[in-house]
Design goal:
single chain, mainly alpha, Serine Threonine Protein Phosphatase 5, Tetratricopeptide repeat, globular
Length: 328
């Protein structure tokens, strides 16, 4: 499922992650599935991927940008470049259109234009992400890493920062392990746009209790806002310090690929309180994310055995089947 498709699946709160997890995925890939590591000089270099991260915007420009991005994804680079240029002419301040035009023009002036954009918009994660991808495709791995670190530092609450985190840690599964809970989406969201859904969930979270705050945090995770999600989960703990799900969510919200112990040091001590598998399931999920499959399988079996017919028992079994399939 592409990032643009995921934009329309904001609050499906069951554990769809079980079907989609691939352990140890190398995410430095071009769209055709070939490695995006710098090729030998004599080989024509493929363009870097394009990921504008327009997950919740629903204005007309965002729709046009998504259409142009789809053209690029389909290999119609010249058509994509022309469309991005049109959008840039309509709105010279559109950072996404400028990034799209630069990437679609590869390799002609791509790095230079993105460097100009980084100077003009130094806090833009989407610019830093794509400058890093372009530098990598040009053979400058050190420069690429520098820009991805800047994307994380300057724009941490963004899909661009998450993608930068992925390419910095190709040994881990992409994204971050989500908090999964048997919570229902509140009524009245179907007729709202993605941005309005997130806004409404935030309003409900501010006025509501622990469940509303957890639902909001889950939605924020799904639209690529990890910092805001972490804060929502912390608010859930503050609303009910005795809530085991809130404590688990808080631990998942702190997941950091540079230092995964921030999550595991919190989940481990909670395991003795686990009655329905919520802790063991998330331990297994997080362990699978960093490639520790053997221990992940052990924890998931414990989660399944704790309550085989319960939500986490069923979800643990689904994830176990997926992990064992990948390993076989």
């Amino acid at each position: 499922m592409s990032p643009r498709t995921r934009a329309h699946v904001l609050v499906g709160l069951a554990a769809a992650v079980s079907a989609g997890l691939v352990v140890g995925v190398t995410v430095l890939q071009a769209d055709n599935g070939e490695s995006a590591e710098p090729p030998p000089p004599e080989v024509e270099r493929a363009p870097p991927p394009l990921e504008l991260g327009l997950l919740v915007r629903d204005d007309s420009e965002a729709e046009a940008l998504r259409d142009a991005e789809s053209l690029f994804d389909e290999g119609q680079r010249e058509e994509a470049r022309a469309r991005f240029q049109e959008l840039l002419a309509e709105n010279p301040d559109s950072v996404e259109a400028a990034v799209g035009a630069a990437i679609a023009s590869w390799p002609d002036g791509t790095v230079e234009r993105l460097e100009e954009l980084a100077a003009q918009s130094p806090e833009s994660g989407v610019v830093r992400l794509h400058l890093g991808l372009a530098l990598l495709a040009s053979g400058d791995e050190e420069g690429a890493v520098r820009e991805w670190r800047e994307a994380e530092r300057r724009d941490p609450d963004s899909p661009a920062a998450l993608r930068a985190d992925d390419v910095l840690h190709p040994q881990f599964a992409p994204g971050r392990p989500p908090f999964v809970a048997p919570l229902e989406a509140p009524p009245g969201l179907d007729d709202l746009s993605p941005a309005e859904q997130v806004e409404e969930l935030g309003r409900r979270a501010r006025a509501g209790g622990v469940d509303e705050k957890l639902v909001y945090g889950i939605a924020l995770q799904r639209v690529g806002r990890p910092v805001s999600a972490r804060e929502a989960f912390q608010d859930a703990v503050a609303a009910d310090p005795d809530s085991l799900p809130a404590k688990v969510a808080d631990a998942l919200g702190r997941f950091d690929k540079d230092d995964p112990s921030q999550t595991f040091s919190r989940l481990g001590p909670l395991a003795d309180s686990d009655k329905d598998g919520v802790v063991r399931y998330h331990l297994g999920l997080a362990l699978s994310w960093i490639g520790q499959v053997e221990e992940a399988v052990r924890q998931l079996r414990l989660a399944r055995n704790a309550d085989p017919d319960g939500f986490y028992g069923r979800e643990a079994n689904r994830l176990l089947e997926r992990l064992l399939e990948v390993e076989s």
